[in-house]
Structure formats: C-alpha cells, structure tokens
Amino acid sequence: MRVSAANLIAMKCSAFVAFMAFALALPSAAGAGVDVWFVADGKPVVVVRNGTTIESAVRQLIAGPTPGERSRGLRSAVPRDTPLLSVTVSQRVVTVDLGARFAAGRDAGALQGRVGQLVRTVRGIPGVRAVRVLLEGGVPVGLFPGYDLRLPVTAAVEPVHHQTTTRDLQRQLVDLGFMAPSGLTGSLDTQTSTAVLGFQKWANLSRDGALGESTVAALERATRPEPRLRAPGRRIEIQLRRQLALLIQDNKVVRAVHISSGAGGKTPTGSFRVYRKERYSWSVPFKVWLPWASYFTGGVAFHEFGSVPTYAASHGCVRVNHYDAPMLFGFAETGTPVRVFDEAAV
Amino acid sequence: MTPHAAGRALVGGIGVVAFLVAGTVAAALVLVALGLPAEGRADDTPPAPAPIVEPRPTELVVALSLGDPVLQAGAVRDGQVILARGLEVDVARELARRLHIPRVRFVYVRPASRLLAAKVRPWHVTIASIRPVRAASAVADLSTPYLGTDQAVVLRRGLPRLTALGELRDRVTCALRGSDGARAIVGSVRPALRPILVPSQERLLQLVQTGACDAAVVPADTVGRFVADRGGLLGPVTARVELGGGYVVAVTRGGPIAVAEVDRALERMRMDGTMHRLARTWLGIDPARLRALN
C-alpha cells in the first residue's frame, strides 16, 4: 500500500502528539505513581510519589523528601522552592526550564548532585530518551560540575565511589611509612598484614591485621605518624602502649614498625643510645640466636623474632618482624638515640 | 564725466579691486583645500584633528568564555549571558562600578579563541583568564593582572611554616608532572632530594596527606580548592613561589574604555580589599596574601 507524503507527515505528527500527551499527561507505565530520586549517605535513592506526569515528578523532586523520609536520612540537593518554569517534550527529549535558584550555592557536590537527581527522575519516565536543563530559558555553561548541559543529558553522573584495591591500600601503607615499598604486591600477604597491624596500633583500632571496613576507612583519612618529641637528626621512639617503634629522621617519621616489647613492663622507659650491634647475637640466658640485634640498654635490644604478637610478650627486648628487622638494624647506627615512652605516664 | 558717472567709475574701480582680492583669497583657499605643497600655504602648522570622543557607555559589555565554576559560569540565551557568577564575573561588575558605568552586560563568546581572534569585537573588555602573552597584547590593550598565576606551597601536616624557599631544598617536594609547579621546583627550589612528579591531583593530595611528600607545589589560584578537598588532612598553605604574570583584562582597542582607567580601577580594588574579599569568596584563599618566597 502506498502512503502519500502528506499522509506520512500526518501520521508522524499524530504519533508525536500522542507521545506528548503520553509523556506530559498520562500515567507512567507502572501506573502506580512516579519515581523521584533523592540521596541517602551520598547514594541515589528512589521513592515513589503520587503523580502521573513528568511535570508532577519534577515538582515532587523540588518539594524534597517528606519529614518521615528526612528522618530516615533522605536528602535532596535540589533547592526547595526552585521555580519550575516549563516542561516540554520534543522527540523524546524532555526540556525542563527552572528558575535561577536551581543553581544556588557553590558546593560542587551539591550542584552536581541536583542535576543527577533531576536527570534520574525524568529519565525514569518510560519513553524519555534525554533531559535538557535550562535556567530561566538559558543554557547553563559551567555551572554544574561534571555536566555539559549545552547538550541533552542521557545519564546522571554517578557519585564517585572509587573502588579501592589491595594495591591502593598497600600504597597508602607505604606512603604513611608502615610498610617498605617492596610490600607493594597487590595481594594480601603477611607483610601487608604486619604493616596493617602497625597502622592499627597507631590509629588505636582493634589489632587483627585485616583490612576490614573500619581499617580501610581510617587508612583513607590517615596522616603520617608524628613523633612525640622534636629533635634534629636520627632517632627512635618506642611507644609501649601502642607497641610501635617510630624511626625518625629530622622530626619526620620515616618508618613506623610493629613491635612487641617486654611483658609486664620489662622494657625500661627512658633515654638511651644504641651501643652495640650484632648481625647474630647469642642470648646467653635464653640460649637463642637473635638476628639483627641492636642493643640500647643493658641486655635489651631490637632484634628479629619469629613471633611478634600485638601485645608486649618478650623478656625485655624489642621484637621486630622479619620484614622490618634488617631495615631497622641499618637505621639504628651505633649512637642513635632511643627514647622509650609509656604513653600513659607521659 | 558727471560726478555721478565719476562716482560709478570709482565704485566700479573699487569693486574690481575687491573682486580681484576676493578671488585671490578664494583661489588660495581652494588650493590649500586641494592639498598643494606646504610651501604654497601661509601657515605650515596644520590644524590638529579634533579627537574622536567616544561617549561614555551606559553599560559595560564584557566578553566571557564561561565553563569554570569558580572563575566564570552562567546561563546563556541567544548569545547573551542571562545568569553569570564567579570570581571574574564579580571582578567585571566591580570594574563597571568603579568606571561609573551603571550596567554590565555579559556576552558569551565561543570558542574561547574568538575572544581575541575575532575581527569585530562588539564588547568593551574581555575577562577570561587571559595571560599577557604577545599574541594577546598584539590585538588588545592588556591591564595589570587581577589574579596572579604564581605557585603555592602546601605542606604536609606537622611541618612549620616556611620562611624561605631554601627550607624546601632538603625536603621531599612533589607536583603534577609537566606543570608550572614542577618547573618551579626545578627552577626555584632546586631540591637536593629528587622531587616526586605524579600524573593526577588525587595522587598528589594523597602524597601530601600521608607525608610521603613534604610539600606540594600547585597553582596559587587553585590551592584553596586543593586544600578544601582534604580539610584538616593537609598542613598549611604557607608560601607562594613567584613566577610572575597573571590573568589580565583585555580592553578592546578603539573602544570607549581606556586600559589606564581599568588599571586604576583594579589598583583601587586591590588597595581597598575588594580583590582580597573576592578571592577569599571564590578561591578559598587569597593567593596575593601568601608570603612570596624566592
């Protein structure tokens, strides 16, 4: 069957008018209401509202969460009382013209978030392909970070949820001084676990050596450990409560090392200096070889030991794990000051 | 000859003389008007052409490029900016006020390269992060900078404020690879320790936060945002490494606004604290108030 050009145009126009009516006035596909997008804990959250048209969805968005929803933590970045000037549809692209109040504020996250809410809400209406946002009839340029609103938007910019990998966390441990760069393996190994223990001690977290949620959150906001005292040159601070040794060069902690000191206060507090170093030291009373031994008072030394628990467990020496023992031995040159603190007593 | 006739002859004689004199003067004027050689003129000094006095505009037309949420952003309808905000927008408004021009109209010029390259520039000034390079000064009169483009130093937590750039020499410094900051480290700090150059600002922030880097060198006009992103996790912004230069106002030549009056207005804005206030509002800190170290 041949269709004349005039008929074809008429058919297209009818289809367009029908879509306009559908989009602007008729119930959404589900028929139960419209989806309106808000935010909870930085993540998009949808709620269903009574309403049947795109315009009603946008108005519900501008109205914001109900008091009940707010008490459940729902928030909106769209300023309340933003004027809605018009909603039009053309070729499945919805143009929403809003008052200038929509661009109020300077918080980049809020500005980006409100466009995201609008796009999600309007794109959620079946049949809508894209959303064009206008302010007072003008095209926004540079007002909303992350969006180029000179063109219709087809998808909201997702909030940045950087997927933190094991390597990222190891990198953070290295940057903070809890692990040597050789520990950047990308896999959760004992060296990483040892470094995590050191970090957990510093941050006063539970000491399990695992990259759990609280440890990861603390790592992402962590800053480098600070020495308790200020003095030039190279020195070592031992913090008995934390069971941590800080290796310090010119007031900067170059490494923080997970240790285990003398049980029951057998490691004396005070100011000492490294006075003897032995690559292998024979412990006469305990009849055991102590690798990488640096003595700083009497028979008390830093040395490598197979077991370095999270608590004070030794006979008075400072046990160091085998990943850090050679490095600490090299750092603790003869004469290096060693200051042992019981933090509670300081 | 009758007295009447004699009188007519006398009058006629005088008339002939007068006619001849008038004719000579007229001819001389015509010759001068036709541009005969100067030696033919009675006076060698030509009259100075009257200066073309542009009437003072009732609105200052400012060209913008838009697109930076901090410096200039807005909404555009038919080429006119109907909503504008940002540091440079506020500078333009202040400028108009100090030039006693009651209104400001912003026009959006796209692409930004047209701001200076367009043959016809129907605007009085352009404010769009223009640096005073030769290409810009060839086509417009450039003001003194309203915002410096020096580098600022952000320290890690725990470090004391810098009093001299030399204090950074034995520290671990870092910057974005290929940036002015990287060049400032090499050229001005001359560090003893190898600087860390990274590809992203995220990594740069992380290095300063963790203390793997003691001091980051970043553009002074963005340092406020840099620090605000990691509130409390970084040390102070303590200093500025002067590299010279800055962003200037380009004044359209032949227009009613003179660059000298723009300079005077900018100077007054600096002196009375307006520029400081605008910088604090939009950038978080005023780069000009950072101690300059070299």
Task: Describe the protein.
The complex is a heterodimer of chains A (346) and B (294). Chain A has 346 residues and is α+β, with helices and mostly antiparallel strands. Chain A has 3 domains: 5-135, no CATH class; 166-220, no CATH class; 234-345, L,D-transpeptidase catalytic domain-like, CATH 2.40.440. Chain A is built from 8 helices and 15 strands. In chain A, α2 runs antiparallel to α4. Chain A is rod-shaped. Residues 13-30 of chain A have low confidence and may be disordered. Chain B is α/β, with parallel strands linked by helices and 294 residues long. Chain B is 35% helix and 22% strand. Chain B has 2 domains: 59-148 and 245-293, 3-Layer(aba) Sandwich (D-Maltodextrin-Binding Protein, domain 2); 151-241, Periplasmic binding protein-like II (D-Maltodextrin-Binding Protein, domain 2). Chain B has helices at residues 3-34, 87-98, 114-117, 134-139, 180-189, 201-210, 223-228, 259-271, 274-283, and strands at residues 59-64, 73-77, 80-85, 103-108, 125-130, 141-142, 147-148, 151-155, 173-176, 196-198, 215-219, 237-241, 246-251, 291-293. Chain B is built from 9 helices and 14 strands. In chain B, strands 1, 4, 5, 6, 7 and 13 form a 6-stranded mixed sheet that branches. In chain B, strands 10-9-11-8-12-14 form a 6-stranded mixed sheet, with helices on both faces. The radius of gyration of chain B is 32 Å and the shape is elongated. At the A-B interface, β6 and α5 of A face β2, β3 and α6 of B. β6 (139-141) of chain A pairs antiparallel with β2 (73-77) of chain B.
Give the strand order, joined by hyphens, for the main sheet of chain A. Answer: 10-15-7-8-9-14-13-12-11
Counting DSSP H or I runs of 4 or more residues, the number of helices of chain A is: 8
Q: Assign the structural class of chain B, choosing from mainly alpha, mainly beta, alpha/beta, alpha+beta, or little secondary structure.
A: alpha/beta
Distance between the termini of chain A: 97 Å
Name the beta content range of chain B.
15-25%
How many strands of chain A? 15
**CATH level 4 superfamily of the largest domain in chain B:** Periplasmic binding protein-like II
- The coarse overall form of chain A would be rod-shaped
Largest beta-sheet characterization of chain B: 6 strands, mixed
Count of alpha/pi helices of chain B: 9
Overall residue-averaged pLDDT value of chain A: 89
Q: Count interface residues per chain for the largest interface.
A: A-B, 31 and 28 residues
* Proportion in β-strands of chain A: 25-35%
Could you tell me the radius of gyration of chain A in angstroms?
32 Å
- Derived structural class of chain A: alpha+beta
Task: Please write the string of helix (H) and strand (E) elements of chain A.
Answer: HEEHHEEHEEHHHEEEEEEEEHE
